Amino acid sequence: MNQDQVKEALLSIEDAPLDFQVIFSGKKSGKVNGLYKPETREIIIHNRNFSGDNLLIYTAIHEYAHHLHACSQGGKLSVRSHTAEFWAILHGLLEKAETRKVYKNVFADSPELAELTETIRKQYLRENGSLVKELGMHLLRAHELCAAIGARFEDYIDRVLCIPRLSATTAIKMYQYNLNPQVGSDNMRFLAGIKNADERIAAEQALINGKSPDSVKAAVRGGRRAFPSEPLTGEEQRTRLEKEKHRLERTIASLTKRLGEVEEELEML
After folding, report:
1. Mind listing the pLDDT tens digit for each residue in 97-120?
2. Full-prediction pTM beyond 0.90?
3. Strand order in the sheet with 21-24
4. In sequence order, which residues have a C-beta less than 8 Å from that of residue 248 and are 6 or more positions away?
5. pLDDT tens digit string along 209-248?
6. Which CATH class is domain 3-105?
7. How far apart, in whole angstroms, are the C-alpha atoms of residue 171 and residue 188?
8. Phi and psi at residue 37, to the nearest 5°
9. 184 φ/ψ sector (left φ>0, alpha ψ -120 to 50, else beta)
10. Which residues make up the CATH 3.30.2010 domain(s) of the chain?
């Protein structure tokens, strides 16, 4: 693939509000496969790092995610560029790229890796989630026994079990919410922090369906609009559009400010 073909492939996945360039460095780098320069909106790819197109296009999509993230922030990026929002953008792009045959998901091509994946999911992620959920059940019983003898449950957690209170509270919620251990204990902790039952159920289902944790977290922060499988009511549609309108207004304001800065710099030249 050449530079123009890579750019065309990226635009076929998702259009960008601001134009950008794809540049092949013609070099091999031992540090990074590519980088994004928000000041010039350039995606630099060290193309000699790759022997095939698939990993090259993965790198291009990664850097394109930085560009789209910058577009949403008025063309600029913070010092910490690999945020949860960035990973959510990247994972969404990869899903689209796989659907449109721009990028090939190679994980299923190895029978040995597929078998190992099932082992990890069943014997470790699910089992670990089940253990933490069972811990929540026993802690809830301990809470009842502490109340029966006139003891503080927090003191029992602190000085007898010697575990953080937040961990104990979260484990209890995992049990009370009847979370699915299939998603693993880390994702169960995240789900336990969602108070709204409908949002929690939707987030859990998204994880079961293969959505990445960062994508689901971004969805929860953005509201139910990010779970398209759920039909929205008229009021929910209004809320979604109002949030999108507010987000677009902020983006326009940021871009307008940046345009003014660029015009001032041009006048000074």
Report:
1. 999 999 998 887 899 999 999 999
2. no
3. 21-24, 42-45, 34-37
4. none
5. 999 999 999 888 775 444 544 445 566 667 767 766 776 7
6. alpha beta
7. 9
8. -110, 105
9. left
10. 3-105
